[in-house]
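Q: Hi! First time doing this. I have a protein sequence and I read that you can turn it into a structure. Is that right? Here it is:
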Amino acid sequence: MGACYGASEMSLKKALVQPLLPYQRGGIAFAGGMRTPQWVLATGVLPGAFGSKKRPLSGEPAWTTQFRSLFARGAEVLSAGGSDLAHTVRCDQFVRDYRSVPFFHEMRRQACGKHIPPSTTVLEDAVPLPEANITMNLVARPAEGPAVEAVFPDGLDVPATSSFVPVMKSGGLVFVAGFMAACKPGDLGGIAPEARVPEGHLWKGNRIQLELDYLVKRKLKVALEGAGSSLERMVKADVSIRDMNDVPAFNQVWAKFFPGGMPATSFWPTANPGLAIEDARIEINCVAAEGALEARRIELPQAARALCDGYPGAVRAGDLLFIPGLVASDENGPVKKEMQHLIALADALCRKAGTKLENVLRIQQVHTDLKDLKGACRAWQKRLPGLPLPLSAFQAPGPLLVPGCTVSIDLWVYCP
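A: Yes, that's right. Below is the predicted 3D structure, encoded as structure tokens:
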């Protein structure tokens, strides 16, 4: 993965936020993950083995080789932070080729055993290594940290082949896997009839709104209530959406479920098709609070312009700050200019929440062209000199939330 970045062990031990297994690629210093007293994250995990180029038709499938090395790398990062795959509470991956996913599931079962955390798999156009088929993010608790509890809510159908635990609870937070508006055990019925416009009809409902209504009521609500939480306590949602032009119609329904204020919500445009069910329009995963854990919205006027439609600039839940997918609503243009605007906005949100940008645990970037990635990383380096970047990135088809924008950022930040 490249040479180690030169940070002293003594300085890392003293810090509340510790970079894990720093390395360099293309002159940029990256962190394999981050650790806080209560969290261990492995971010932007990429495979390190790709099979034989000289004999590609010999031996095991190249995807098997890739994914075995992917989980070996993920486990290595977690171990450096005092955790392991058995203490993961979330697993998100962005994949280039749908044909590889069964091989991914098999390697995940081998690596994780019965403890496969809530998961989301989305198809995207490209990842930072051209030869790689995937990039993955893991969220875990330290092995000596709060207990991790698997939850299987009654009445919640889950995909037949993924083998993941649908819901995990730990330390006042609930992590829910990515769900679509699918029906029947194993989701084998495809998109539910109630979530479709009836065949042969042109205007008996709007497809994105029908899917969303079904998904929230039959999946997310059931999952959260089964874990002792509720829709009202949702703090973060990631929406993988096939057509960004559906966002206004999505927002119209989404807002009705959150009269007290919507959660921090990010939109990932997917490839087309981009989800496990070929004609699905959306998949949503989420994080919610439960028990005595308190959450609060962080509002800034400039963040409202970047997000629009009543979304908060960020949400703080316990010791985590969730800053959803920001776009440069006022500064479209070269990626350097967009990134300067976004980083300044993220910095202001951190300060309003009582933390600082230097405590960032994960940077998720969506680019319409990964050729811009190095320039974006340079902008981060300028603002966070000496800090290896805990960065994950992928290329998605445009447009993003604001036409003309080329990058969106989503952050998890530690709040001591």
